[in-house]
Amino acid sequence: MNRIRCLVFNRALEVLDYRAPEGMAVEPGAIVVAPLGPRQITGIVWEPERLPAQEVPAEKLRPILEIIPVPPLSAPLRRLIEWTADYYCASPSSVARMVISSGGALNGPATMTEYRLSGGMPERMTPQREQAIEALQGEQATIRELASIAGVSEGVLRGLVSQGVIEPVTVAIDRPFDPADPDYDVPELSAEQREVADVLVNAVRAQEFAPFLLDGVTGSGKTETYFEPMAEAIRMGRQVLVMLPEIALTENFLKRFEARFGVAPVLWHSSLKSTERRRAWRAISEDSAQVVVGARSALFLPYPKLGLIVVDEAHEVSFKQDDGVRYNARDVAVMRGHFEGFPVVLASATPALESLHMADTGTYTRLELPSRFGGAELPHIDTIDLTEEPPERGRWLSPRLVAALEDRLAKHEQSLLFLNRRGYAPLTLCRNCGFRFQCANCSAWLVEHRLSARLACHHCGHEEVPPATCPECGELDCLVACGPGVERIADEVAELFPEARIAVATSDTLNSPERAAEFIAAAENAAIDIIIGTQLVTKGFHFPELTLVGVIDADLGLEGGDLRAAERTYQQVAQVAGRAGRGAKPGEVLIQTRHPQAPVIAALSDGNRDAFYEAETEARRHAGAPPFGRWAAIIISSEDDAEARSAANRLGDTRPQIDGLMVLGPAPAPLALLRGRYRYRFLVNARRTANLQQVLRDWLAQHDFPPGIRVGVDIDPYSFV
Ligand code: ADP
Ligand code: ZN
């Protein structure tokens, strides 16, 4: 009798035992369909000794129904799943779900039906039909996806299908991807780049675990340099994964990739259509996708022959997932290299303190690119003390910054103004009664967006149309905007320089690959004089004509005061400063601040990165913060405030009393209400040597919370709200 243990995709059950039917050989890693009562469930076959479960008597075991014909998950990938679940206090099935992240890839036919406009017109035109026909020009997708593109219901589209205005098309889903050519257009590297590239190429040849920190100043050509080990991996028939923090960045990357390797890489991110997902997943799992470029979710895909991972802009917080499995893709990437035996490269001009510490202690090999490519100089950085050189009343740009913009306009050079706030104003209030617009689902102010004429919550996505009268006192035309967002800065710039060509670059305006590509082309061709952007424009971009960067409010990021506020401010400002002077002309950076003496601002204006990191390292050591100690957060939430509070208090009553471990809380979270759930937080600080995860698991296991309660554990948290 052949007992088969399965990790099943069901949170409550998690592990179930089955048996193999007569004549079926079932290997660990196989993806199978099994019965569950009258229904069916998908699972992954596992080594029984690695996945404890209650033993079911042999005679009660039901047979597996079928093995899905996709390659089994490899043993190292199964170890990675176990490690991730263990380290981040998540269930193995929730991690495995990120591996099997395309339901369609497991079943479904090899062809599918998509729909597109046929060119015909409906017998009767309605506003919705008109809207759909206009929006769907050139689109081809499933009905559901078309409905979302057009902003109409699926019913409207089905009506158009029955009239022949929209027609079905049969498409093959799993067409192979074009192979990349490692020698398509090999650049000539500088001596400095060559040295680094050679080390990495050798590491790829060795196919052993080797973590690298590629620490190179902005504009040093980190991309060109890590393309070389990628090319070597392709020559060796190994797969390569490049992780980027933001989809908006990929456009820029794709162009450079195509120029180097002759084809586009395989893309993986959350806004892929289901068919694109399926095609990519299958190609990846069958080893026909050579190079995958993706967001953090690309990390868990079942590559059978991965030979290199590059994490670009590795310091970026978007590699940390803040819901579901709260993992940091940067760290898990290194673990994947460890389990599967290949090099991992973390590239950044402003590495995370944790990564620098790993390099300092010799755990990671540090590779440096200390100068810009092609002789470009790093920009000159200066601060503007807003207490001494304030802007005019109701304005946000100080006279010196305005003069610098004027100078660049006269010289036909480009400027970039950075403010990490989307929208027009972060707060709207009634001048008459003081009423403030707040989100109904979150403890957050609604942010005014003038371009889309909405008040929006940046936490839950709730939107409303600004009313003509105050909802509290009924006064007409009494709403005032408080504080600036990028749209307001854009207004100020337009008033000052009516002739200037201005572009607002945020996730609102660059919300699709097409729009991002348009923006990049316009900026590269000097068709924009002044770019006003959020953190989206702080990294990756290379605009040769850009010579001035203005930071509107460097103090903004320090206000939260959380563990990483100073580091994040340093990284953001240093990255945005790094956009200036990348071409032939030298760059200048002006940082507006009320605290020019603050250590992080002073380090930025002196260009003294080491001083900042040394001071920050000491502060962390003193606080027992990472990398010297460990932090974990526990977030208790419920739709009922009293229920959440009482659960948090009960948990607090049994807090572990352990030497070297301190539990703070429970306290209402700074975002006390989020998406309609009331939230309470604990912060746990432990010594490096404490077995933090085991302590947390034992602590939480003592409690049986009511079904309305959600308990989130966040190891190495980045978010403190
Ligand atoms: P980083 O990512 O380190 O900020 P990039 O990789 O964006 O720097 O490189 C800066 C610019 O220099 C890019 O336009 C890039 O194409 C160019 N560049 C870098 N190295 C080379 C090289 N060896 N040959 C030609 N162009 C290069
Ligand atoms: Zn909200």
Q: How is the main sheet built?
A: 7 strands, parallel
Q: Which small-molecule species are bound to the chains here?
A: adenosine-5'-diphosphate, zinc ion
CATH topology of the largest domain: Rossmann fold
Share in helix: 25-40%
The averaged pLDDT comes out at 93
Query: What percentage of amino acids are in beta strands?
Result: 15-25%
Query: By CATH's scheme, which homologous superfamily of the largest domain applies?
Result: P-loop containing nucleotide triphosphate hydrolases
Q: Output the structural class.
A: alpha/beta
How many DSSP helices? 20
Strand order in the largest sheet:
10-11-9-12-13-8-14
Shape: globular
Query: How many β-strand runs?
Result: 29
CATH architecture label name of the largest domain: 3-Layer(aba) Sandwich
The CATH class of the largest domain turns out to be Alpha Beta
Gyration radius over CA: 27 Å
Q: How many structural units, i.e. domains?
A: 5
Unreliable stretches covering 5 or more consecutive residues: none
Q: Determine the N-to-C terminus distance.
A: 53 Å
